[in-house]
Amino acid sequence: MGLTYANMPLDRCSNQRKNKRWLTSEFNHQDTLFCVINDGMSLFSHDNNFTPIYLSKAQLDSLSINSCIYLGKGAESVESTSVRSMFTVNFEKLRFSSQEQLLKLGQWKNLREATPNLTVLDASIQALAKALDYWHSTHQYCGKCGNVSSSVEAGHARRCTECRNMSFPRTDPAVIMLVEHMFPDGIARCLLGRQATWKAGMYSTLAGFVDPGETLEEAVIREVSEETAVVVENPQYITSQPWPFPASVMLGFTAVATSTIIDISQDDIDDCQWFSREQLADFYAETKTNNDETTQYRIGSGDSISSYLITAWKNKEIGQY
Ligand SMILES: [Zn+2]
Fold it and tell me: What is the fold, at CATH topology level, of the domain defined by 172-314?
């Protein structure tokens, strides 16, 4: 099934959603479902199963099509979405009566908290809704003239009410890389770092945003050098993952180090080390239930591409060594 958040079951209907007649008919259809986002959080059932709550239009009092964002239409094979269309709407856009109703139906949770309980399909739908909602909430004004912009094209663009400048949902590319090296003792090791704010013992692959005018491969080489002073070559693309926390796509790479001395003094990471496969076998993945503060080494939660890259390298599925 691939990575978490990367299993979109919905057809985005990119061409149809610009057709107002078609969009209105989908909006008014009795089977259409609405996903509500409140301050970046999604609505889940009150119990600990965190079942995502999708609502019908009838459950949302006086909903306006202009305040909704079209997500897509479910493929017939996907049971949870049938062939119905799905929209997302921001909680603030709802009438008070609907808001009160929603609070009785469920609880607001950060997506990553609920993810371990979600199907891969629901996780992908929620990620899309969260990403689009975030973009709208942070792009209310025209970047060119500063006047108010309004949502157009079913929520997939915004147009300035004054100068007509169009803007589109942005996704910030970030590279994330599993750096490996074959040491003189014949043992291959990978380079993992941690930030001071993370739970004790947690390590992750290095990552960073792509600069303007830079290739992804250049970003891999630069980021590793900036963070650790380790020199790498031959970045190889592996896979990608939508990461709406808040607005990225993570581009996973492997790279081979040509130097091994680590210097973190020029960056803000807390620690960085080389780890062999044997050492990685003692790592365990962080889960919601595992909150002890012991210094057992661990990798981040299973929903991230970082844990995917580390596990795949440990199992010799990726990398040169
Ligand atoms: Zn403008």
Answer: Nucleoside Triphosphate Pyrophosphohydrolase (3.90.79)
| Span 190-232, pLDDT tens digits | 999 999 999 889 999 999 999 999 999 999 999 999 999 999 9
> Residue 294: is its pLDDT beyond 70?
no
Q: Ligand 1 center to residue 161 CA distance, Å?
A: 7
User: Which residue, 171, 183, 176, is CA-closest to 216?
Assistant: 176
CA of 148 relative to ligand 1 center, distance in Å: 7
In the block, tokens 């107002």 appear at: 20
Which of 222, 249, 4 is CA-nearest to residue 112? Answer: 4
CB atoms within 10 A of CB 7: 18
Output the CA 140–ligand 1 centroid distance in Å. Answer: 11
Strand 33-38 versus strand 85-90 pairing type? parallel
Q: How many CA atoms lie within 13 A of 311 on its CB side?
A: 14
- Ligand 1: distance of its center to the CA of 121 in Å? 37
